[in-house]
Design a protein that fits this description.
5-stranded mixed beta sheet, 3-stranded antiparallel beta sheet, 143 residues, Hypothetical upf0131 protein ytfp, alpha+beta
Length: 143
């Protein structure tokens, strides 16, 4: 029997070229995507906000196909405690892709589940772009 697979939208440090990319090595890339919500910088990684916190923004990322075992590993990486939202740093939710080749498809993503007071908004919703801008500023000031 084939293991069940899931379409997962990622938008932060799990993406290629970023700190936790190795966690996605066995996943199959499905396409670039945007989902409704907004991003905040919560320290060493971003948090996606939805619902009343999200306004009308979009978040840029990528969708990957993962199996049950991979999804369980990612839940642990993201601090999600299955069945206990209150104890989870992130919570996995269903979202509809609103931009990109997978537009209209339902996918899962990790939504930030902690207070965001004092967090820096990432207004354009693209964490890779945000990190690149910080690196360019830091690198420029170092010379």
């Amino acid at each position: 029997m084939q293991p069940m697979t899931h379409a997962l939208f990622i938008y932060g440090t799990l993406m290629p070229g970023l700190r936790l990319e190795a966690e996605m090595h066995s996943a199959r890339f499905m396409g670039a995507a945007q989902v409704p919500g907004r991003l905040v910088d919560v320290g060493r990684y971003p948090g996606l906000l939805r619902g009343v916190d999200s306004g009308d923004g979009t978040v840029t990322g990528e969708v990957y196909e993962v199996d049950d075992a991979h999804l369980a590993r990612l839940d642990a990486v993201e601090g999600m405690v299955p069945g206990n939202r209150a104890a989870s740093q992130y919570w996995r939710e269903w979202v509809t892709v609103v931009g990109g080749p997978l537009q209209g498809q339902q996918v899962q993503t990790y939504v930030y589940n902690c207070p965001t007071e004092g967090c820096t908004p990432i207004a354009h919703g693209d964490y890779r772009r945000y990190v690149a801008a910080i690196f360019m500023c830091t690198d420029h000031h170092a010379t």
